[in-house]
Design a protein that fits this description.
two-stranded antiparallel sheet, 126 residues, elongated, single chain, 2 domains, 2 strands
């Protein structure tokens, strides 16, 4: 087992779950305590995609919505609106990744697409 798995198993022991399996611990956090992948990841100091991998592997979740679907579900008309929003404007991709559950690469691609749509190129304004 890796470091994250060890932290989860140790937490399970201290939470009174005895020698519960990784699957049982994640089931408890996801289904009973209603924590999402981002909240579980914060609890164990790992990335949301790591937790999402296990949640998918154990059949607790299906494929996640695209970033565009996430934007719509959270009231943003476009990636530009998301990146311009006051609470997101000064944040780094790593912070946004932990908050949204989307990886750095996904956010970076969306940001580059937004810049291109706004008329920016690698050399500045086009």
């Amino acid at each position: 087992m890796g470091k994250v798995e060890d932290r989860i198993m140790k937490w399970g022991e201290t939470a009174g779950m005895g020698d519960a399996s990784l699957k049982a611990i994640l089931r408890n956090l996801f289904n009973k305590e209603k924590l999402n992948a981002v909240e579980i990841a914060k609890k164990f100091r790992c990335s949301p995609p790591t937790i999402r991998y296990w949640l998918k592997k154990y059949g607790f979740i299906e494929t996640r919505p695209t970033f565009e679907e996430y934007l719509t579900e959270n009231g943003f008309a476009s990636a530009g609106e998301f990146f311009r929003h006051p609470k997101n404007r000064s944040k780094k991709f790593r912070e946004l990744s932990h908050e949204t559950g989307y990886c750095y690469l996904t956010l970076s691609k969306a940001y580059k697409k937004f810049l291109k749509e706004e008329g920016f190129s690698k050399k500045g304004l086009s």
